Amino acid sequence: MKVEIWSDVVCPFCYIGKRKFENALKEFAHRDEVEVVWHSFELTPDFQPIPGESIHESLAKKKGVSAEEGRKMNDYMTGVAKEVGLAYDFDRAIPANTFLAHQLIHLGAHHGRQDATKERLMAAYYLEGQNIGDLETLVKLGAELAFDSTETRAALTAGTYAEAVRQDEYHAQQINVRGVPFFVFEDKYAVSGAQPTELFAEVLEKVWDEFKPAKPALTMVADGPACGPEGCD
What we know:
Layout: E1 2-7, H1 12-26, E2 35-40, H2 55-63, H3 67-82, H4 99-110, H5 114-126, H6 135-144, H7 149-158, H8 162-174, E3 182-185, E4 189-192, H9 197-211, E5 227-228, E6 231-232
Parallel strand pairs: 1-2
Antiparallel strand pairs: 1-3, 3-4, 5-6
Helix pairs in contact: 1-9, 2-3, 4-5, 6-7
């Protein structure tokens, strides 16, 4: 079974949704036969961070509210994240453009470590206060995932995976993705948002029952003398 997920690294519900989906997947009997593919989605592609501006101030400006209201929104999100075991630290979070980070996730896919790369970036942003829009920070995070630093720096500098990010976003437009996280199961069923773990579990079971691999038909490669209920040939 294939599950494709569109999300942004700086989308708080995306990390929460990731955990809820993973919790459902852990209990799914056929989890080893599920392929998860992460796709890029930039909530604010043209975002230009202002040095020294806090995430509370950045959110407030985007929403057109006071900085205090921005902090309250983030405090609420911290509580929601805590329910799935994530300790968001918005006081340390650094506003960032995610275009380079998405390219690193594609590099991770190239090395067969896409999910690990996605997880590392989200943890760096939400839990550790690292600047995921900074090239050298991304090179360092890549090194933690055993990526060659020279390769990572060269790929991000040259935009080797920039087109892959744009293709993901174009695909999102084609299937009318309006918000993230957005989950697509077997290119037929979609789930939008950080839904409860129980719902993800139900969808996994439903899709598996509908699309589970059929047992291959036997192909006779030799037919010779044998015995059966009526005797022997």
